[in-house]
Each structure stands twice: as structure tokens, then as C-alpha cells.
Design a protein that fits this description.
Helix content is about 25%, strand content about 20%. It has helices spanning about 25-35, 45-50, 55-60, 80-90, 110-115, 125-130, 160-170, 195-205, 220-225, 255-260, 360-365, 370-375, and strands at about 20, 40-45, 75-80, 95-100, 115-120, 145, 180, 215, 230-235, 265-275, 280-285, 290, 295-300, 315-320, 325, 335-340, 350-355, 385. Strand 14 (about 315-320) and strand 15 form a beta hairpin. It is elongated, with a radius of gyration of 25 Å. It starts with 17 loop residues before the first strand and ends with a strand. Pyridoxal-5'-phosphate (PLP) binds near residues 218 and 236.
Length: about 400
């Protein structure tokens, strides 16, 4: 090489929509939950593809045989039989609970063979269990969680029917003891809503005298309602580092930062084009954003085809080169446009963070008039996943 050889700097590598999964953050969130209720067992909720983070991926991270007990989940919760079976196929051996139970009696032998646990929330499910010939269950007894409707009025048996359901299950040879008694909280995200107090009082009135394991707390219950903790916690959202409480999008004591949980998913993509526009020019489909002064527009390789919300409004924050810039113009299938400002020095290939580390998904949800749960679950299969 001669001294006047010109070395062209390597071009920034471009990444399309990529979700970086921070395994350490997941383990720390898990440990934090454990520290809030050291005597409780934890059922980690993994439904909807692990809230978009990957069903088997999250289960494996929380069940690795190398993990000490403080990081290893006591059980996993899913909504559908298929989700449970794919966990078993991935080699997960922990208890798995079907949080809505089975929808057909024919699924009960599959439940028994795969050592799954089932919620019972209505008469059909009770009948299916108690009338099932024991040989069809290979004489295995089913592990059951009896769900009581204490006020949410979605799933769960009526409080007036509790004794009947409990006795029927107790006296069935198809059912193993103990039976976990559970309920679900409708408004636990709001510390000032007294319906949680009422739900918990009703639950206590029905079950307080029974020596069975109990479970009422989702993430919001864990954070805000200590009296809901009982024996089994059922965290979903907070496990992924997202605040389950109301108004978590600002820097209040309800934010993830204040709760000391860390985002597990950081969603990123590169700038793939940069252009100068003049005051008065419009950007994107429908030309619904107009520059008020000369500026620089950056195009980021992510859109609603990846799960970025199409209804994110102008001004939704995007993090690029350690500063927040506003989304401008409509979100398209594969791209969004941002206002980098007239003095921008950003380059093609620079990475934009759409949510995650240093930009809570709770904030983006507010700008898209939705909730963080929906944004996470909407991550599409074409998004690259990397685990750090
Ligand atoms: C029965 C049950 N328990 C726990 C959870 C977890 O809730 P969260 O993600 O709010 O912690 C859910 C989720 O909807 C649920 O349906």
C-alpha cells in the first residue's frame, strides 16, 4: 500500500426491521418480580408468541438448566393448546397452564399426555373433565386451576357456583389435588380504582378458608396490589420490561424506569435514504405532512408490514444518533419518514430505535392511541430477531 492510497470508509451496514432481545434484561425483570414476592411461585405468561418476543425463545431463556432457581420460572402460561404443544416440542419441561382451558373434550387426552395444566371456567369444561373415561386420560389425573369471576365478567364461574364446582372437581378421580383457585383483575393498573379491592375481598370471602394454592396477580397486581399476590404470580407485560400501570408513558412513578424494570425488546432499523426538502414541500402518502421550513428527511426501513403502528401520529418520537426526532408523514408498509432537521449529519445506515432501550414502547403506544401489549404482539414474522 502506498502512502497516498485512499481508503474508502466502509459503508454503514443497513439493517431492516430488527428486534434485539436483551436476555439479561429479561432475567433481571424476572428476578425483580421474585424479589417483590419472594415466597410466591411465578407463572410466566408467554401467550401471543411471548408478547412478540418469541414463545420458545423466552421459555428457554427462563428455563435454561444452567439458570439458578432465582431465574427459572416455576410454570408458563399460554392461551392456546397449540402454544403449549410447541413449547413441549421445543423441549420445555416446566409445568404449562392453558389459561383458557380446553375448548373441546377431545383435547383432554392431549393435555394429559403432555402433562399440561388447565383452567376450568365454565360448566362445559367441568363436564368434559368429570365425564371423561379415565382410560382415555391414560389414568393420569389432570391438574386444574379453577377460575372464579370476581367482577371482570369475562371468564370464570359465578361466585354462587363456586362450592358446587369446587366439590365436583375435588371428588373427581380425573382431577389431581391441590386445585389452584384463581381470579383475574380488571382494573389493577389503576391504583385508585376500588374495584380491585372489591374483587380481592370477594375472592378472599370465597376461598379464604380453603387450604389450596391461590392466584390473582397479573403484572399490575404484582406492582400495585400486594394483597393480590397469594401463592402464584402471573406476570406477562412486566416480564418484558414494560410498565403495566396507567399513565406509564411519562416519567411518573408508574413508568417502567420507576418500577426498575428494563425493556427486553429494542426495535431498530436503518436509515436507507436521506433527502433535503424545502419549506412548503409535503412528505409521504396523502401528502399529509408539510415542512414549515427547509429540512432533512430520513427514510427508515420499517413500516406497518413489520408491526410498526400505522396510526402512529406525526411527532411520534424516533431515536437516532442519541436524539429524538419526530415521525412525519404516514407510516407505509416498509418505511417511515422522520424529520432529521436542517443541520442533520446523519448518514445512510445509521440506526434508528423505534422503541425499547431509551425509548419506552409505552410512549409509542400513546402516540398510536393503543397499548404497549398490542404493539409488542404485532411484531411480524419478517422482523429479524437477534438475542443479546
Ligand atoms: C389469566 C391471565 N393471567 C395473567 C395475564 C398476564 O397479564 P399481564 O400481561 O398484564 O401481566 C393474563 C394476560 O392477559 C391473563 O389472561
Amino acid at each position: 500500500m502506498t502512502s497516498n492510497t485512499v481508503i474508502t470508509p466502509a459503508k454503514n451496514t443497513i439493517i431492516t426491521a430488527t428486534a434485539v432481545i436483551d436476555s439479561q434484561a429479561l432475567l433481571e425483570n424476572y428476578q425483580l418480580i421474585k424479589s417483590l414476592a419472594p415466597n410466591c411461585k411465578i407463572l410466566a405468561v408467554l401467550k401471543a408468541n411471548g408478547y412478540g418476543h418469541g414463545l420458545a425463545r423466552i421459555a428457554k431463556l427462563l428455563s435454561d438448566s444452567l439458570l439458578t432457581e432465582e431465574y427459572s420460572a416455576d410454570a408458563f402460561g399460554v392461551a392456546r393448546l397449540d402454544e403449549a404443544l410447541s413449547l413441549r416440542a421445543a423441549g420445555i419441561v416446566q409445568p404449562i397452564v392453558l389459561l383458557e382451558g380446553v375448548f373441546n373434550q377431545a383435547d383432554l387426552p392431549i393435555v394429559a399426555v403432555n402433562d399440561l395444566q388447565i383452567v376450568v371456567h365454565d360448566q362445559e369444561q367441568l363436564d368434559a373433565i368429570i365425564h371423561m373415561p379415565a382410560e382415555k386420560l391414560l389414568h393420569k389425573q389432570l391438574k386444574v386451576w379453577l377460575k372464579i369471576d370476581t367482577g371482570m365478567h369475562r371468564l370464570g364461574i359465578e361466585t354462587a357456583d363456586f362450592d358446587y364446582f369446587y366439590q365436583q372437581l375435588k371428588s373427581s378421580n380425573n382431577v389431581q389435588t391441590p386445585i389452584v383457585l384463581m381470579s383475574h383483575l380488571a382494573c389493577a393498573d389503576d391504583k385508585n380504582d376500588d374495584s380491585t379491592t372489591k374483587q380481592l375481598a370477594l375472592f378472599e370471602q370465597l376461598t379464604g378458608h380453603l387450604d389450596e394454592p391461590k392466584s390473582c396477580a397479573n403484572s399490575a397486581g404484582i406492582c400495585a396490589w400486594q394483597q393480590s399476590h397469594y401463592d402464584w404470580l402471573r406476570p406477562g407485560l412486566m416480564l418484558y420490561g414494560v410498565s403495566p400501570l396507567l399513565n406509564a408513558d411519562n416519567n411518573s412513578h408508574n413508568s417502567a424506569q420507576a418500577l426498575a424494570i428494563k425493556p427486553v425488546m429494542t426495535l431498530q432499523a436503518s436509515l436507507i435514504a436521506i433527502r433535503q426538502i424545502k419549506a412548503g414541500e409535503k412528505v409521504g402518502y396523502g401528502a399529509n405532512w408539510q415542512a414549515t421550513k427547509n429540512t432533512t428527511i430520513g427514510v427508515v426501513a420499517i413500516g406497518y408490514g413489520d408491526g410498526y403502528p400505522r396510526h402512529a401520529n406525526n411527532n411520534t418520537p424516533v431515536l437516532i444518533n442519541n436524539r429524538i426526532v419526530p415521525l412525519v408523514g404516514r407510516v407505509a408498509m416498509d418505511m417511515i419518514t422522520v424529520d432529521l432537521g436542517v443541520d442533520s449529519t446523519d448518514k445512510i445506515g445509521d440506526i434508528a430505535t423505534l422503541w425499547g432501550k431509551n425509548l419506552p414502547v409505552e410512549v409509542i403506544a400513546k402516540h398510536a392511541t393503543t397499548i404497549a401489549y398490542e404493539l409488542l404482539c404485532n411484531i411480524k414474522p419478517r422482523v429479524q430477531i437477534t438475542v443479546s
